[in-house]
Task: inverse folding
């Protein structure tokens, strides 16, 4: 619509704009928006408890009452449920409104214990704050208040104090609407209404920490932060979570130089304020007393503490020694857990030394070529008409991406087409979930996309393929073949690569990826197993835990002469290293990180590195000096500048303020195509079970094990089969069975699981108890095992 | 344990089929579970959750909202004596005391043999016939203490077992909806035609 104003200028009127006034000031609102959301863009604050901009409005608390002009005079409405309308006149602070708001607060406080001095929320509590700003000041309630048992644990992590609850429905709404885990609910009625779980069933949601963050009172608190600090003692800085590659925006809070809490920050392109519990609570591992605090050096069969100068000299000597036999006798593994600058510094050093064998992916990733296919952002993925999943279980591995895609399928117009060998967290929301036996994906993809129904769906609009490694018992090439099939049928599809390690994309772009046709991590280890790698440098990598094929790792480590490890903890891979250099952890260093969609944003230092640990980039620089290979930088800033001028992908990263908020997308190289290959089907002997090995949220990752609130949640290793297959095996759940292939056997409990397809068996990766890795063999395409009853 | 019995699962499925969304069947199913054991057990709630595709917590939340659902085992006969105005004026308090003495339990209690649970009830909508009581939701009107004694004797000897079902059965006849009277299992948002009786005017 176009109108001409008196001055004669043409004004284009957006049909979605609604003009209203709030307290006599004109405000532009969006059609369909609620008054409270429009008011949030002005200086007039409307008090509220239940309204949350990322969830549906429910009008539970009635705190947001305002007056709206009607033909019959001013009328009181809840601003969180009343949509704006053209010409609407809203008043938020009339005497009537104030009286109403005071009345509501008085009622909310009637049963509230007011135990602010011992409440963790005190000091940052919306109830406390709004009682001051919009409350009556005095209560007329002299009766006995309602009493409940003081906090009850509703999960391993979350405590609920029902006396403090104001029944705003935020936690229950979040659990249902956002997380899809409605494990808490309002129970009983009237004065007895309370939030509860089903009796004796914990609120075991991967996203439970969000309810603690959004609870407007101190009713929900989380174990890691309880009684640790008061809000006015906290120091904080905005940063990016690097526990997985979603890259959620967070604030890192500390007290007395210890990390005490992360809170989600709402940025539109990524996490909308939400975090997963692993990302939120594994800061405990940074504070762990097990952390490496000084350099260690091999002394006989033990590791002994030493000084940085001695350690660096020894490391330099070992590298120099190995380099005598050619640059291929040194290899670098890891680097995906550090910053872009850390990775770049190491890449510079490797360049100087001529080391081309480097890989930040540890055999569980995809070829870096994938980053040169047309890329989709998370937003583009969630706006696509069709989201094709050829990916691991996002709920387990990239949790907040799961929330975004679930939202796209539930509330927007996206349809999920899932290809998987096991039901995933997104299966219930998929428009079509197509199962395949590991090894058959290319064929299944080809057949499925051929159907008229699917072709029609794919024509409806944008298509994004979410691609990653769903099964660690499967060769990478199988995923790539299936992807090639998809892209053949849908050539315009964009790709969202989902490689889970925090900064894998940044590390690869920065140069920690095989150079000059040298092989990837698996090739490096295979070569090492034949004695051709003398010195292995581990950048926060623990091949014994990270690489699926444990036999290969064992064979390689038996042959490698010297191991230099840069890490935050002692682990199986560096326990016998020659030199271990303590690295600064997340929260202890500045830099930038790159998420799975190629978004670069900053990570910030909030506390002093433990002991004498240093950021990886400083270690690279110092080691370079000891080796006479100066990488030519003396500050992080210089390093960052050098990175954005040398690495084309990072050339977009000059905008400092964007890097400090929503992040900046990397630049992509010229697109490549991946070619199809002939489809071969891999037949399975019907007595065998084909393995699906995948990660779950809580496994023996160092950062989980070293976080005391999370370590108890890691479950024991077990093998899972379809209930009918369990019947076929003929044992009851929990029985130990022998699982074997070619003479390698493990003994492990078996359980039934409806999400496991018939003829396959699911093994969660890296759990406590039995090590399942001996069964895995990176060289074969798939793994078929026998499951036998132990007589 | 007290999951729904096979025959009740069949009934449950029939009930579920009446609704456009499975979970809408939850309340009739809770009654069905209560009919089976007199109260709603943990296992029953888990089972109902499985049947209609919601979490146990959601079943629990719904069930605890309603006063007539019970979560503890009760006697074979639930005797609800009304204590609201009309009945109170007509001597229901005396009736309650008498019942307490006769059964040897206080209001709210269950007799040791598991035969009777005595309960105080709010208005049961029979004020004209005060004082009234219900045994397993079957009315007894203008009840005197002698009537009460006879009632208890009859229940004990099983004389009334035809007339009064065991605990929790609300309706006398199980409802069967003829196909032509079914609302139809179509979710409201999928209905894009107005019902005929609205003469084609947009009603949604
Ligand atoms: S526990 Fe907190 S978030 Fe949940 S309903 Fe109560 S006040 Fe709201
Ligand atoms: S989803 Fe990933 S980035 Fe986000 S909070 Fe969890 S671990 Fe951190
Ligand atoms: S914020 Fe509007 S009713 Fe709670």
Result:
């Amino acid at each position: 619509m176009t109108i001409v104003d008196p001055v004669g200028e043409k004004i284009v009127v957006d049909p979605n704009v609604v003009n209203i006034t709030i307290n006599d000031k004109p405000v532009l609102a969006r059609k369909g928006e609620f008054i409270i959301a429009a008011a949030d863009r002005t200086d007039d604050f409307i008090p509220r408890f239940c309204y949350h901009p990322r969830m549906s409005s429910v009008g539970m608390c009635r705190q947001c009452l305002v007056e709206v002009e009607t033909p019959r005079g001013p009328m009181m409405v809840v601003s969180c449920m009343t949509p704006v309308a053209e010409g609407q006149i809203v008043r938020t602070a009339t005497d009537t409104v104030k009286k109403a708001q005071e009345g509501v607060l008085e009622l909310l406080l009637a049963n509230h214990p007011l135990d602010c001095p011992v409440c963790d929320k005190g000091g940052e509590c919306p109830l406390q704050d709004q009682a001051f700003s919009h409350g009556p000041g005095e209560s007329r309630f002299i009766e006995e208040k309602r009493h409940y048992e003081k906090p009850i644990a509703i999960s391993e992590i979350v405590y609920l104090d029902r006396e403090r609850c104001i029944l705003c429905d935020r936690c229950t709404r979040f659990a249902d609407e956002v997380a899809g885990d409605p494990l808490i609910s309002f129970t009983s009625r009237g004065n007895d209404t309370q939030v509860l779980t089903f009796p004796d069933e914990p609120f075991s949601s991967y996203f439970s920490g969000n309810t603690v963050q959004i609870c407007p009172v101190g009713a929900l608190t989380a174990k890691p932060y309880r009684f640790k600090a008061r809000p006015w003692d906290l120091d904080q800085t905005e940063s990016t979570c690097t526990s997985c590659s979603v890259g959620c925006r967070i604030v890192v809070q500390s007290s007395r130089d210890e990390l005490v809490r992360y809170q989600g920050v709402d940025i539109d392109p990524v996490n909308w304020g939400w975090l997963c519990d692993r990302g939120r609570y594994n800061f405990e591992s940074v504070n762990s007393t097990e952390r490496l605090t000084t350099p260690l050096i091999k002394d006989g069969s033990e590791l002994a503490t030493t000084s940085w100068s001695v350690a660096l000299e020894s490391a330099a000597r070992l590298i120099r020694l190995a380099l005598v036999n050619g640059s291929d006798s040194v290899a670098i593994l890891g680097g995906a857990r550090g910053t872009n600058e850390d990775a770049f510094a190491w890449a510079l050093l490797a360049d100087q030394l001529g080391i081309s064998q480097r890989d930040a992916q540890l055999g569980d990733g995809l070829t870096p070529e994938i980053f040169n296919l047309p890329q989709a952002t998370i937003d583009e993925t969630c706006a696509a008409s069709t989201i094709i999943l050829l990916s691991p279980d996002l709920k387990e591995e990239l949790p907040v991406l799961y929330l975004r895609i679930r939202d796209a399928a539930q509330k927007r117009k996206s349809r999920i087409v899932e290809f998987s060998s096991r039901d995933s967290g997104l299966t219930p929301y998929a428009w079509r979930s197509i199962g395949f036996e590991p090894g058959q994906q290319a064929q299944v993809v080809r057949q499925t996309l051929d159907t008229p129904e699917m072709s029609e769906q794919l024509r409806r609009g944008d298509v994004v393929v979410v691609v990653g490694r769903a099964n660690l018992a499967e060769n990478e090439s199988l995923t790539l073949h299936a992807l090639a099939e998809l892209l053949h049928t849908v050539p315009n599809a964009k790709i969202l690569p989902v490689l889970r390690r925090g900064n894998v994309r940044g590390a690869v772009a920065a140069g920690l990826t095989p150079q000059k046709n040298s092989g990837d991590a698996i090739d490096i280890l295979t070569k090492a197993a034949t004695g051709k790698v003398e010195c292995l440098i581990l950048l926060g990598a623990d091949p014994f835990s990270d690489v699926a094929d444990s036999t290969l790792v064992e064979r390689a480590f038996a042959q490698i002469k010297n191991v230099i490890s840069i890490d935050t903890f002692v682990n199986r891979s560096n326990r016998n290293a020659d030199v271990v250099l303590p690295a600064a952890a997340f929260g202890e260093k500045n830099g930038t990180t790159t998420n799975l969609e190629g978004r670069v944003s900053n990570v910030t230092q909030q506390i002093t590195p433990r002991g004498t640990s240093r950021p990886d980039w400083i270690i690279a620089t110092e080691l370079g000096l000891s080796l006479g290979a100066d990488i030519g930088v003396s500050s992080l800033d210089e390093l960052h500048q050098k990175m954005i001028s040398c690495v084309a992908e990072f050339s977009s990263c000059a905008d400092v303020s964007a890097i400090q908020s929503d992040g900046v997308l990397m630049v992509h190289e010229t697109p490549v195509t991946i070619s199809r290959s002939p489809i071969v089907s891999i037949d399975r002997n019907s007595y065998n079970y084909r393995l699906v090995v995948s990660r779950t949220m809580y496994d023996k990752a160092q950062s989980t094990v070293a976080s005391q609130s999370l370590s108890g949640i890691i479950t024991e290793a077990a093998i899972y089969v379809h209930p009918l297959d369990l019947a076929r095996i003929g044992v009851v759940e929990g029985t130990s069975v022998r699982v074997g292939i070619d003479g390698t056997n493990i003994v492990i409990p078996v359980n039934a699981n409806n999400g496991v397809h018939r003829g396959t068996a699911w093994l969660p990766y890296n759990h406590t108890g039995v090590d399942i890795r001996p069964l895995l063999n990176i060289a074969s395409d798939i793994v078929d095992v026998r499951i036998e009853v132990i007589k | 344990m007290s999951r729904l019995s096979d025959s009740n699962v069949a009934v449950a499925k029939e009930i579920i089929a009446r609704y456009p969304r499975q979970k809408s069947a939850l309340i009739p199913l809770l009654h069905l579970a209560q009919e089976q054991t007199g109260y709603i057990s943990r296992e029953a709630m888990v089972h109902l959750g499985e049947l209609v595709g919601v979490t146990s917590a959601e079943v629990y939340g719904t069930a605890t909202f309603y006063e007539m659902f019970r979560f503890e085992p009760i006697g074979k006969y639930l005797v609800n004596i009304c204590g609201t105005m009309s009945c109170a004026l007509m001597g229901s308090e005396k009736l309650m005391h008498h019942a307490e003495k006769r059964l040897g339990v206080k209001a709210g209690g269950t007799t040791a043999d598991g035969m009777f649970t005595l309960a105080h009830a709010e208005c049961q909508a029979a004020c004209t016939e005060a004082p009234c009581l219900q045994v397993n939701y079957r009315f007894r009107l203008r009840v005197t203490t002698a009537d009460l004694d006879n009632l208890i004797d009859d229940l004990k000897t099983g004389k009334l077992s035809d007339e009064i079902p065991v605990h929790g059965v609300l309706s006398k006849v199980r409802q069967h909806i003829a196909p032509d009277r079914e609302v139809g299992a179509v979710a409201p948002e999928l209905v894009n035609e107005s019902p005929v009786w609205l003469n084609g005017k947009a009603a949604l």
Notes: Residues A 48-51, 59-64, 78, 80 surround FE2/S2 (inorganic) cluster (ligand 3) (CB under 6 Å). The longest strand of chain A covers residues 744-752. Chain A has a mean pLDDT of 95. DSSP finds 25 helices and 36 strands in chain A.
